[in-house]
Predict the 3D structure of the following.
Amino acid sequence: MDKPIAYTFFPDKNHCEGFGSIFQSEVFAFMYAKYHHKPYFRTKFKLYNGHGNTDQQNEKEQYHFFDFLNSSLSQTDFKLVNINFNESYKFISNLTSIQRDSLINTVREAYINSKEKVINQQKDKEYKIALHLRSFSNGDVMFSLDSLPWQCFNYDYGLKFNNPKFYSIFYSDIVHLILKSIPEEADKKVTIYSTGNISSFEDIKNRINSNLEIKLNNNVLDDFIELVNSDYLILAQSSLSYLASILHVGPKYIREGFRHFTTSDTVIIKDNIIANFSEFDRIHDAIKLFYLRTINYFKKKGI
């Protein structure tokens, strides 16, 4: 008699992916399984190539953080079918927002139920605002130079919408919008999570001018947990904070133009609303950015 089907995700140890990318694949495979009313089982741990240099112990801790995805049933009773990222993501992105919300809530409930004691210990009266920024540095490797640099906080294309000064204005304005929504008498703390050198953050530090902490080059799992457990989350255009947004319960904000669908409780902020640039500026930047990225692509190909 054939065994019933259960789903899993087989990570490729030879493929270069960061923390957010590799584990979002698992989360989407879990959501795919839940939609089809099938169990989800995790595969045995495999090393993967991620951002920066992490030792094997850190990678094991990162892996086991997501054990809440694992079914409590006996894996030997099922036939495992691999669901890769392209398959699970395409399926979930084609669902209605109501269907996606239901699956995302299933992930959040599984996380909260497994981590409840840790979450409760971290909750206090201080409002925590987490801002994730990608920094072009050794700690945040760009796997595709023709497409990703514009997503980095400190990468300057010389465009109105894509340069360090614009990013400082854009993200500090979001922080101030959040601060205004919190009771004035309440304690508040803003934390920037990123990589690279502190010198890249002087401008935004001065613009926020609040109870601010900047955490650079820290353990990625520690940063991830703090992103998830914050009261307000401001995403970078990054799989790390995107994955955090799926687990995070509370208000979330992201710059427009992200490559993935976002959760229904994530507010998409348009560039010209914050920076007050014209639609002409936007179109001009988009054309020039496309040109520059095309040039980079052909340079990389040696054409």
